[in-house]
Design a protein that fits this description.
Elements lengths: L7 E3 L5 E3 L7 E7 L8 H12 L4 E7 L11 H12 L18 H9 L15 E4 L5 E5 L9 H10 L4
Parallel strand pairs: 3-4
Antiparallel strand pairs: 1-2, 3-5, 5-6
């Protein structure tokens, strides 16, 4: 696989979605959780969505319960929490695994494209972020502690560099 656009994933509503639907957009793919020390990052992620959506940008949220069981709810509970507490309007997807034998193929690809610290591929915690260009290729990986606000220069650069034709 050469592009994120080659993957399909289940939406939080259970319906299969092709990521080809996001061709031409800059994406920020994030594994999220509702009961994590980084959960307040939802506010910053929503601010990015609000500020850049009109320019062809979207956050894609992938709930994950692999780290300290910090996402125990079902999809309806997760979506309700995100919408009510943080006003999330960006696309959310079904709960997935990001590490191990049952890691979703999308995350296996993301990790292989941009390994983390010291070349390790494993996702270390919730709110690991991947910035993807309009062409579907990975630009950069960010650790969980990297705030959404601090990504603005990289997002701006990706939006300007990859203006749609």
């Amino acid at each position: 696989m050469n592009s994120i656009h080659e993957f399909s994933v289940a939406g939080i509503d259970g319906q299969e979605r092709s990521l080809a639907d996001y061709a031409g957009q800059v994406l920020l793919v994030v594994n999220v959780a509702s009961h994590c020390g980084f959960t307040p990052q939802y506010e910053g992620l929503q601010a990015l969505q609000r500020d850049y959506a009109a320019r062809g940008f979207s956050v894609l949220g992938f709930p994950c319960n692999q780290f300290g069981r910090q996402e125990p709810g079902n999809e309806a509970e997760i979506l309700g929490f995100c919408e009510t507490r943080y006003g999330v309007s960006f696309p959310m997807f079904a709960k997935i695994e990001v590490n191990g034998a049952n890691a979703h193929p999308l995350y296996r690809w993301l990790k292989s494209q941009k390994p983390g610290m010291l070349g390790t591929e494993a996702i270390k915690w919730n709110f690991t972020k991947f910035l993807v260009g309009r062409d579907g290729r990975l630009i950069r990986r960010y650790a969980p502690a990297v705030t959404p606000q601090s990504l603005r220069p990289d997002i701006e650069s990706a939006l300007q560099r990859d203006e749609p034709v």
